Amino acid sequence: LRGSRVLLVGLKGLGAEVAKNLILAGVKALTLLDHQQATSEDARSQFLIPTSSLGRNRAEASVERAQNLNPMVEVKVDTENIKDKTQEFLAQYDAVCLTCCPRDVMVRIDQFCRSRNIKFFAGDVFGYHGYMFSDLGEHKFVEEKQKVVKVGPGEEDGPKAKKVKIDPNETTLIKKVPECGD
Amino acid sequence: MALVGPLSRALSERLSRCRLLVVGAGGIGCELLKNLVLAGFRDIEVMDLDTIDVSNLNRQFLFQKKHVGKSKAQVAKESALKFCPEARIAAHHDSIMNPGYNVEFFRQFTLVMNALDNRAARNHVNRMCLAADIPLIESGTAGYLGQVTVIKKGVTECYECQPKPSQKTFPGCTIRNTPSEPIHCIVWAKYLFNQLFGEEDADQEVSPDTADPEAAWELSDAAARAGASNEDGGIKRISTKDWARSTGYDPVKIFNKLFRDDIKYLLTMDQLWRKRKAPVPLDWVDVEKFASNLRMHIFSMNMKSKFDVKSMAGNIIPAIATTNAVIAGLIVLEGLKILSGNLEQCRTIFLNKQPNPRKKLLVPCTLDPPNPSCYVCSIKPEVTVKLNTQKVSIQVLQDRVKQCVL
Question: Which residues are in the THIF-type NAD/FAD binding fold domain (chain B) (predicted)?
């Protein structure tokens, strides 16, 4: 987490929430990328943009409040359109998060990220509805499971000896690898 | 249909006229206040007795380092107003359990939303909202888990209709200043171990908490004291870890600080000991037992077996910012249902750590009707008391009930 460089595309309401959560978590660097200007609609959902900054580029308008959330994160601004960005540009990131992107752009960027094992996230909101998608490629993760306490070798054979006990106070972390379609 | 964002014009107008009380301006409270203001609520009162601590900054995003020591409610209000200057927000640096906040106070609100972290305050707000007949949205988080529910007198269960398991997380001032149960001491010992030998964590301080709201005669005192101890020019608090290292991890010095000098300091916060048994400092020559048992001894509690200690020490759950964010979002959605007159659509929603068999992380459940024999909300409240009729007379039972020592 502390060494990660993340690219966040789209600074509308959803982007602001993602930016807040990533910055509070404490990634190494977060680039805010957006080529559009703040509109009055943003005033209702984008708490990183001061109300006096309508008309300014959204990423630029968001950077001050974003940086104040956690001075230890390098918060950068990019005002270009994600469509025009090169593979070289994307390759510098450990994770990419796309919001407000058209489908063809998301597919193209996902293909590239997947080939370089860059973690890919995408999402958007529409009124009360929204979606999130992630493509994490090959990766390991841990899951917390209740620890199984096996009966010792000195116990007598019998129905009780065959029961495996679960210790409710102990959990253990198990490494897993996801299968496609999980 | 005319729309204001995703809301109907009628709902949007109702939101802007709705008087809202938000109890708590911490993890859930900050996210909630942001959501409310952006959703269109314009008349909000927010209350919190606490001041901002550096350990809050990783998730209570309305607060920055420069605000440490100040009132949470006040700073939350100022930060939220920046998103929405037209909103009317009143901040109370106070405890909701203060008798000044009576039924009449509660009746002025359309809706109450809890963003609390302790059982006592939740029980209290539950009872006040029942008495005033105001809908209450209750919520809580612990690590990755979270929950939101709606309480409406006569329609749903109240907060106390079902018995609840004992509280598992505790405010910092309980751990650092006024432990009263073995579990508080076990948590303290675990924090101590981490502070001395692990990574520094502002959420796991063990030294006396000067900003304890209860220690002050006036709540503004606590804020002033906390502010003073953060400024340069004298009382700058050094972290336990740095201090221990500076002594070369000298056991006598560390012991005397933790179990004698810090206790003596706590004793100067005399407000804390007006209704509690005061702690008794120890000296190095008394040492023989483990840290948690020592602390229990200081605070006059029963010792716990090694097995119990181990099992309790495992239950420490760190706070996670995004859990609070999700729950705060759900609180607003439930609020919109209530304001639209759709109480029957309200649900208890559980946020789980793992998806259920239907692959859902968020699981809604229909609200249960009130428990007919709930001792708080039913028309004929009932309590079951078991006692030995050979040993307890009716007079004694009556006296005990009157003294509230049942």
Answer: 9-374
Residue in the structure block whose two tokens are 């004298």: B234
pLDDT band at B19 (very low <50, low <70, confident <90, very high): very high
Asked whether residue A182 carries a pLDDT value surpassing 50, the answer given is: no
How far, in Å, CA of B302 to CA of B26, rounded?
Answer: 33
A23 and A41 in a single domain? The answer is yes
Q: What is the mean pLDDT of residues B60-85?
A: 95
If you average pLDDT over every residue of chain B, what do you get? 86
Cα B82 to Cα A65, B13, B87, B89: the distances in Å are 11, 22, 10, 11
* Cβ-Cβ contacts under 8 Å, B11 against chain A: none
**What average pLDDT score do residues B202-227 get?**
71
Query: Which of B6, B58, B84 is nearest residue A24 as measured by Cβ atoms?
Result: B58
Give catalytic residue positions of B.
Answer: 173
Mean pLDDT of B204-225: 72
Kindly write down the DSSP assignment for every residue of B334-386, as one continuous string.
Answer: HHHHHHTT-GGG-EEEEE-SS--TTS-SEEEEEPPPPPTT-TTTSSS------
Query: Measured in Å, how far apart are chain A's first and last C-alpha atoms?
Result: 24
Q: What is the DSSP string of B106-158?
A: HHT-SEEEE----HHHHHHHHHHHHHHT--EEEEEEETTEEEEEEE-TTTS--
Q: What angle do CA B260, B265, B269 make, to 5 degrees?
A: 140
ipTM of this predicted complex?
0.85
**All structural domains of chain B with their residue ranges:** 9-163+317-366, 172-312
Q: How many domains does chain A have?
A: 2
Where in the sequence is the domain holding A90, given as residue range(s)? Answer: 5-135
Find how far residue B82's CA is from the centre of its chain: 26
Radius of gyration of chain A (CA): 22
How far apart CA B273 and CA B215 sit, in angstroms, is 9
CATH number at residue A21: 3.40.50.720
Q: Are B143 and B323 in contact (CB under 8 A)?
A: yes
B321-339 and B27-39 helices, crossing angle to 10°: 40
**pLDDT at residue B14, rounded to an integer:** 95
Residue with tokens 């708590």: B24
Q: Residue B230 — pLDDT band, cuts 50, 70, 90?
A: very low
Least confident piece of the model among A23-37, B37-51, B208-222, B302-316: B302-316
Q: Name the residue in chain B with its Cα closest to that of A26.
A: B58
Q: How does pLDDT run across A23-57, given as a tens digit for each residue?
A: 999 999 999 999 999 998 887 789 999 989 999 99
Domain B9-163+317-366 of CATH type 3.30.70.120: no
Do the Cβ atoms of A69 and B38 come within 8 Å? no
